[in-house]
Amino acid sequence: MNDRRIWWFFIVPCMLVALAVVMSLAAVFQYSFREFIPGSLDTGGFTLENFYNIGRPLYFLVILDTLLISLLTAIFCLLLSYPVAYALVRTEAEWLRALLVILSITPLFTGEIVRTYAWMLVLGSDGFVNSILMALGIVSAPVQFMYTKFGVIVALVHFSMPVMIILLATAISHVNRDYEKAAANLGAAPLVVFWRVTVPLTMPGIVASTVVIFAWTMSAFATPQLIGGGKVLMISNLVYLQGLSSFNFPVAAVLSAVAFIAAVGSLALVQPFVTRLERRVAQQ
Amino acid sequence: MAIRMKGLLAAAILLAGTGIAPAQEELVVSIWGGNWRDGAQEAIATEFTKRTGVEVKFVTGGTMDRLTKAKLSAGAPQADVTLTTSHVAYLYSASDLFEKLDVSKIPNLKEAYPIALRSPYAIGLYSYVYAPAYRTDLMPDDFKITSWKDLWGDQVKDKLGLPDFDPSHIIIAAAKLSGADAKDWKKGIPLLEKLKPNIKALYQSDATSQELMKTGETPVQVLLSINAYHQMSQGIPIKLVIPEEGGVVGIDAVGISAGTKMADAAYQFVNTALDPKVQEKLCELYKCSPMNAKAHVSDEMAKLPGIFTSDEQLEKQILVDDETRAKLLPEWKSWFTENMTR
């Protein structure tokens, strides 16, 4: 097989998949220009009214909540995942590395629903956390974790951590340790070496993984649905409520478009910054 | 020859893997999962198969998910018969997803209450209510419910669970308490807004409702009577109350998919489902009210809240016609989501 044939062998399937994705998105987005007819599964003629609905307080607040929850999930995920990824890459004890891999990566192989139900058992009024708090006398009545943004973020951070750990571990493993040794030889304390050398060298990975988790959380559905209990709504939940409960496919399509643009837009906005960082790190 | 045999074998394996059967030899019935499917299997499908020799295959899913799938497969229906709520059955028929029924092929319909014929496209099989219910072990001893307005009381603060997939029950109840009806539901808005501090969570399905009641997260709920009795049978101390204003009656209906190739069997299934003995069994399992007037309801069951054995009893409850409910539901849902969830 010559180079050209190999090229086509890979490019044709990619083009077909891309075409299928574009056509699916087009099929969804065309609904955003259709008129909603109550009591019918069919849509009416062309209208722009659905886009004006986005300015309504609920939609606006849910979009803001989605951005806030996604941002906080990404930040907390980074703060908790970096030490784990660092230990995973740098530890010389094989047993510790194996343990960290098992603890951090295996949750990937359990579904979102299973993990979310586990958090419901942990965060519920008579769940694990409240039982401990009450048994220790720290609180006299159960603390409300369920149906709050806090509960949703906790479950989303746990859900996203395995992916973040993999991305950060890759970035940390690419750091040339000679730089850290040179800094240490010049008298820098371990914490200073970490803060002034390791972190800057892994910055492209930090930014890229944070953006990935931010964009991935934007589409969260089951976790806010179950932990939020209808009191914490993200865009996907609103799409479901409008599309599949009210059959208002046009508004659901507009909301889907907003979520899509926000996720792709955030990736596109950050990409030049990541590229610049990567170049700067490569030059050092 | 060897190559051809291998080809045939590969095709057979592929066909089996994709689940594509060479020809349909069973009646496909769309229904909710869990105890809904189990009850329909035990009461209707078993008798239907005994009478016709045709096996029943149930496909399960949520009310709206199944409607969406039906819409997407219009013209080549994946189910021959669909059981759904009567106002959603209106949406099926409005979208030409149900066949116009030839009632002469459903002789048992003659014995049914008049409200069983929901439309020329759907027939009610049984009724139930959405009404207030609470955990007797988790609420104060002096707590009681006699009216819908008790849900607004201080004792219910941060304890109430409501369905978010269909908020019509509380909206209709608030309208009634405000001296209006479903069509003038906006008169109940001030009252609904006062209910917000009492709402702890909104449930998205029967399963979530049962989970919230079981764990005690929402010890007071606007609850489907069938689910209440199902959980009581599992030992959970629940009291279901029909308020003095009446419970909000719901009717589950059956329709035959437009374009089905199993029309004869589908009619026989519907007729079997309306058979008095089948209705007795179904309602004993679900703890619901039969649509066939000749179906016997035991004295013990007839005393249960939400079980109706006559037209007069039903008329004392809150009944909304399917078209009004189907057309207002999107508006109710939008208002509820915008104003009650945050």
Tell me what you see in this structure.
The complex is a heterodimer of chains A (284) and B (342). By secondary structure, chain A is an all-alpha fold. Chain A has 13 helices and two strands; from the N terminus they run H-E-E-H-H-H-H-H-H-H-H-H-H-H-H. Chain A has a single domain (56-283), classed as MetI-like (MetI-like fold), CATH 1.10.3720. Chain A has helices at residues 3-29, 49-53, 57-90, 94-105, 112-123, 128-135, 149-173, 177-185, 190-201, 203-218, 222-228, 235-245, 249-283; strands at 34-36, 43-46. In chain A, helix 3 runs antiparallel to helix 4 (94-105) and helix 3 packs parallel to helix 7 (149-173). Chain A is globular and about 75 Å long. The model of chain A has no long low-confidence stretch (mean pLDDT 90). By secondary structure, chain B is an alpha/beta fold. Chain B has two domains: 25-127 and 250-310, D-Maltodextrin-Binding Protein, domain 2, CATH 3.40.190; 129-248 and 320-340, 3-Layer(aba) Sandwich (D-Maltodextrin-Binding Protein, domain 2), CATH 3.40.190. Chain B is 41% helix and 18% strand. Chains A and B meet through helix 3 and helix 12 of A and helix 3, helix 4, strand 7, helix 7 and helix 13 of B.
The biggest beta sheet of chain B is recorded as: 11 strands, mixed
Estimated radius of gyration of chain A: 23 Å
| Binned strand content of chain B | 15-25%
- CATH class category of chain A: Mainly Alpha
Task: Please give the largest β-sheet of chain A.
Answer: 2 strands, antiparallel
- Shape-level CATH architecture of chain A: Orthogonal Bundle
- Contiguous low-pLDDT stretches of chain A (5 residues minimum) are none
Which topology of the largest domain in chain B does CATH recognise?
Answer: D-Maltodextrin-Binding Protein, domain 2
Quaternary structure type: heterodimer
Strands of chain A, count: 2
User: What overall form of chain B do the CA principal axes indicate?
Assistant: globular
The CATH architecture name of the largest domain in chain B reads: 3-Layer(aba) Sandwich
> How many domains, in number, for the residues of chain A?
1
